[in-house]
Amino acid sequence: MKSISSQILTYISISLCVVFIGRYFYGIHSRTQFETERLKQNSIRICTRLANFSVKPILNHDLESIQSYLNVEGLDENIRSIQIFDQNNRFYGGVLHTNGKVHIIKDGALPDLDKDSIVRPVLYQGKTIGKVVLYPDKEPLLQYIGELKLLFFVELGMFFLVLAVIQLFIIKIVVINPLSSLRNWVSSINTDEKIPEPKLFHSTEIDIVTVAISQLADRLISALKENISKSNLILEKETLITAIGTNLTGGMIFRLTTHENGLRQFTYLSGSFKKLYGYSPEEGIADPLIIFGSVVKEDVQSLLDAETASKRDLSTYRCEVRMINPDGTIRISRFVSTPTLMEDGSISWDGIELDITDLKKAQADLQQNQFLLESITEGLPDSIFAKDINGCFLFVNSALANRVNKKPQDFLGKDTNVLFLPDEANKTLEKDFEIMKSGVIQTYEEEKMTLTGKAFYLTTKGPIMDGESNIVGLFGISRDITKQKREEEALRVSQEKFEFAFDSSPNAILIQDEGTGRYLGANASATSVFGYSKEEILGKTPLELSLYKDLANRKKVLETLKRELYIDNMEIVGRHKLGMDLNLLLTVVRRFIDNKPFLYINVQDVTERKKVELELQKLNLDKDRFISILGHDLRGPVNSISTLLDILNKNFNDMSMEEIEEIIHLVYQSTKRTSRLLDDVLLWATAKSGKMEFNPQRINFKKDCKVIAELLQFTASVKKIDVELICEDSLVVYADKNMLDTVLRNLISNALKFTREGGNIKIAAKKNSDETVVSIIDNGVGISTKDIDKIFDKAQLFSSIGTNEEKGTGFGLKLCQEFIEKHGGKIWVESEAGIGSAFHFSLPNEG
Q: Which of 310, 316, 460, 689 has its CA 20 to 30 A from that of 519?
């Protein structure tokens, strides 16, 4: 038994020694791994930041900024030294971390450090301009290992001391006590004392010890199993939380500890942190400014105010702030957390950050859509409403509320009784439930006894469905067609009169099936207007008969019918069977027979009236133009002549001969211009009246044009303008001589008026196969782009001042246009301000 006890003690001792040694080395391994990973992450983070920061200072040789920034970053306990060099390995600045203090390294005093370092390049536009070197500090790790060794030996000594005490106790029970009993028993042999025979092995005590050890072992095993179960449960929950945090879309889970001195430190950040901030959770835990520094400056106070309010009564923390994303864009984040007061006075915040940017945008879009919906529905004359699954109003527009002189809010939450009498309300609810049950949109006419009287409505109702196709309510659009129904009743009463009017009406009347678009009826006037027989029209559609010149007119008609019940005097352009254009006034009325829509179409042919109107407009325009000339262009010069003569008459005896000659010259010039204008007006009026004879003949263009140019030679000589005629001597045009001479005189006069002194004018003519084109080209002041279209605009007269202040009326060009068009030719202008102008006209060749 003694041997067995010794073996048990030996096994227990060896096992405990192995456990202590294993725990020691495991502690060293775990701490080494933790410190190594922490050193790696911190070094990479600091090195990357310094590499980004150092670009501008290195380029600008800003050593002070580098030194200042290094002094802050150098406080990290894992970093022994930080040094920055340029691309030529020239030292810029650095710090050295010794004895808990940071010392600035001066140029030329680089410390002798271990070769174990981390190097990151400083990049600018893809090129390396420097490098950052970080030397890790292994002292914290070595110090921890030394402390762990000391703790190990203290624990090992305590263990052997306890083990020795236990062994002495067991030796006393198992060895010393039995030997003492044996000695007493041997002594009793000689003294005849009756002492019970000793039990050398003390089986009872050994059994008690064995049972105790067994029970202790069972308890240990049970506790171990329970701990393993709890550990598995905790591990399962931690795994679940980690999975949720890592895969959380648009958010992250965090635990933050705040202290009374204002210190904030994150103790946990979920894996989704990197998606939001671009850094790993470990970097976020090491540097809280990654999170707090991303808050938009103007929103920081909101964050602090919410925290203060939550601390006051430890209520749930809620706050929405703007955050700066890694790419510089802005997101809106909602922070929600629960505060817990810790024993040391700090507060632990367990919470979640959610990116609600899309939610905020959706809410804004929803509000905008709601506003748009209300704006649209309030502007419509139709009644629009929505009901819930129980038939109570969720929304009504003003048109519906106005039926019973109420406000839209008076309907909300109430059923149809607010609108109709009880019997009508019940019928309406039954219909609503029927439509919701069927799930089909229905359009129908209904007759209702409202609180204000009898009315007829064209109603469309349909079910409202949620995202899972469940019916959750009903929408409806109702149009008051009481007036139309009354018209239909009147139409029914006067059916015979209608049939008579249908057959005898001077307007084309067609009856069309709205569903198929085919004509079901046509009167005699329809055959006259469109040129088709009644048999050709019936059963055909407008497209098959090509009744529209432009399909845009048909689209306009269909869109109007979709919005309205009828069309009243819509102007369209139709087409005759022979292809001629028809100006039509279209009136369309929709009628229902057995709930089937038909269109009654009244077409008035206003083609001849349009021609008369256009001619009348043209005549009115000519009249206005004529009156304008008489009232302004003729009246002005006559008044000037009258004024000049009056001055001459009153002051003749007091005036010098030069003054008299000047006034007479002015009178002469004004009279000359007035005479020329009168000639043009008379010619134009004669042409407009149709009384001017048009006698085209073969004319030698060069000879005729030369005569006109010689008549204007005086004006050209005064302004020293060279006039050049370019054409073949034998060029012959077929034209009315008087009209041609008028056109040439006006165009050449205009060229002289708008050409500066010393300029030149070219008159060119060229005969083509079909026509002869004449051009009068000058290098004068030209015409601005905005005024070119006004020159030959028949709706207005255009004139401007010449280079020597010559005035005009613009009437001569209108006369030219009239005469050229009389010949069947065209007239046009090409000009550029400051460069010159070229007036062209064409005359068709003979035959």
A: 460
Q: pTM for this structure?
A: 0.31
Tokens standing for residue 242:
């980690």
- At residue 424, φ and ψ (nearest 5 deg) are -65, -35
Residues 785-811: what's their mean pLDDT? 60
What's at 666, amino acid-wise?
L
pLDDT at 645: 81
Q: Give every CB contact of residue 315 below 8 A, 6+ residues apart in sequence.
A: 309, 339
Helix%, strand%, coil% for the chain, nearest 5: 50, 25, 25
Whole-number Å distance between alpha carbons of 436 and 442: 10
Q: Which DSSP string do the residues of 708-741 spell out, in sequence order?
A: HHHHTHHHHHHTT-EEEEES-TT-EEEEEHHHHH
According to DSSP, residue 175 is labeled: I
Residue 800 pLDDT > 70, yes or no?
A: no
How many residues appear in the chain? 847
59 CA to centre of own chain: 40
**pLDDT(362) > 80:** no
Q: What is the per-residue pLDDT across 491-539, written as a single tens digit (0 to 9) for each?
A: 777 776 666 767 777 888 888 898 888 998 888 888 888 899 989 999 9
Beta strands in 635-789 (DSSP E): 696-700, 722-726, 732-736, 760-767, 771-778
SS3 88: coil
Torsion from C-alpha of 211, 216, 221, 224, nearest 10 degrees: 180
For residue 513, what are the β-bridge partners? 598
Residue 81's identity, in one-letter code, is S
Query: What would you measure as the largest C-alpha separation in the chain, in angstroms?
Result: 197
Q: Of all residues in the chain, what percent carry a pLDDT higher than 70?
A: 69
Per-residue b or e along 750-776, where b marks 16 or more CB atoms closer than 10 Å to that residue's CB: bbbbbbeeebbbbbebebeeebbebbb
Helix axis angle, 495-504 relative to 482-493, nearest 10°? 80
Indicate whether 827 pLDDT > 50: yes
Reading the block at residue 443, the tokens are 């359009």
Asked if 819 and 739 count as a contact pair (C-beta separation under 8 A), the reply is yes
